[in-house]
């Protein structure tokens, strides 16, 4: 694989080649799994369809993930770009879509990894029940981490490109106050915890605080790692620290999709196939965004992605109180990114007219 560059003549279909291959292999594997588990044509077709729906769900939830990945990836060294696009996708597919759900059951049910795998294969209903019961702490942790990611983008006093100008200018101005985003997140945590009762409220607060501490720890460790690498070589900036940040970020994005997938099927292996296909599209979109310089060409695209992240974080919080269909989450994020893209196109047209005016 060649390092990600700033310009590329590769077509869109060229970037999606491996995603298409993963789709074909995944859907064939899903159909085979359906035949093996049910022994009927209708059962095979059902599993095939569920894999396809899960792939679409993952893609719709991950537009903003790809944009944020590209934002960080463009500043990474070619070596770490390549590592993220190879090791990172393996961690995303196998780590978050298979190992992560197993670990939740291992911890929640206090059983061994092998027992968790057996439970997933032999008692999928019980496995799904344990996963659903773990939704509150996962939503609190992941929602907090994503909220910090989104707020960090807007609470930046050096940020000079604003999409929703009146709001973003004020947020940029307040960024000079140290810890303002942390204070904001802690306030939101207190508000939502007050709407829960008893043990649920306590669990929410603890897991949200862990999410906040994880974000701060990743920031500190990432900064130290990149700084130590930079002392050895000026070209090494944006290495291991940025890699760790992106992996934790991808994990936070994946929480909602993994939990939501259990609404469609209780089969862990079907979920892994469907979401794994979607993860390959995220990888392809990330490479395309970086190589084609799309983030620089469409100035408000990042803004739309980070607004989508903030909305996703609030939705994850709200899901601790009421169920919100994942299709709303996905379509909402995609709509925001679409509007930001259209705003960017309009801006480019105005600039072009002024230049020729």
From TrEMBL:
Keyword rRNA-binding: no
Transmembrane segments annotated in the record for this chain: 12-35, 41-63, 84-114, 134-155, 175-195, 201-222, 259-283, 304-322, 328-347
Alphabetized InterPro entries for the sequence: DUF475
One Pfam family cited in the UniProt record for this chain: DUF475
Protein name stated in the entry: Integral membrane protein
Keywords linked to the UniProt accession: Membrane, Transmembrane, Transmembrane helix
């Amino acid at each position: 694989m060649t390092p990600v560059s700033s310009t590329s003549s590769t077509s869109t279909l060229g970037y999606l080649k491996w995603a298409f291959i993963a789709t074909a292999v995944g859907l064939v594997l899903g159909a085979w799994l359906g035949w093996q588990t049910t022994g009927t044509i209708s059962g095979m077709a059902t599993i095939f369809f569920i894999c396809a729906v899960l792939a679409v769900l993952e893609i719709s939830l991950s537009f903003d993930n790809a944009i944020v990945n590209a934002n960080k990836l463009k500043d990474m060294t070619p070596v770490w770009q390549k590592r993220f696009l190879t090791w990172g996708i393996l961690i995303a597919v196998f780590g978050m879509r298979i190992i992560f759900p197993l670990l939740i059951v291992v911890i929640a049910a206090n059983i061994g990894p092998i027992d968790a795998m057996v439970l997933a294969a032999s008692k999928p209903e019980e496995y799904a029940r344990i996963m659903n019961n773990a939704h509150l702490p996962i939503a609190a942790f992941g929602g907090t981490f994503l909220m910090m990611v989104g707020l960090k983008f807007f609470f930046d006093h050096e940020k000079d490109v604003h999409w929703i100008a009146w709001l973003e200018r004020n947020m940029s101005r307040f960024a000079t106050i140290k810890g303002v985003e942390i204070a904001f997140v802690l306030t939101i945590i207190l508000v939502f915890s007050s709407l829960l009762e008893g043990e649920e409220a306590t669990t929410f607060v603890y897991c949200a605080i862990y999410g906040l501490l994880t974000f701060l720890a990743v920031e500190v460790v990432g900064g130290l790692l990149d700084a130590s690498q930079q002392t050895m070589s000026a070209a090494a900036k944006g290495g291991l620290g940025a890699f760790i940040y992106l992996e934790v970020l991808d994990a936070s994005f994946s929480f909602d999709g993994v939990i939501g997938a259990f609404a469609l099927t209780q089969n862990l292996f079907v979920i892994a196939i469907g979401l794994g296909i979607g993860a390959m599209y995220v990888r392809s979109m990330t490479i395309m965004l970086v190589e084609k310089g799309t983030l620089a060409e469409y100035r408000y695209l990042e803004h739309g992605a980070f607004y989508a992240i903030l909305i996703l974080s609030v939705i994850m919080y709200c899901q601790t109180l009421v169920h919100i269909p994942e299709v709303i989450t996905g379509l909402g994020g995609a709509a925001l990114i679409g509007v930001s893209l259209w705003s960017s196109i309009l801006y480019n047209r105005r600039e072009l007219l002024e230049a020729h005016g």
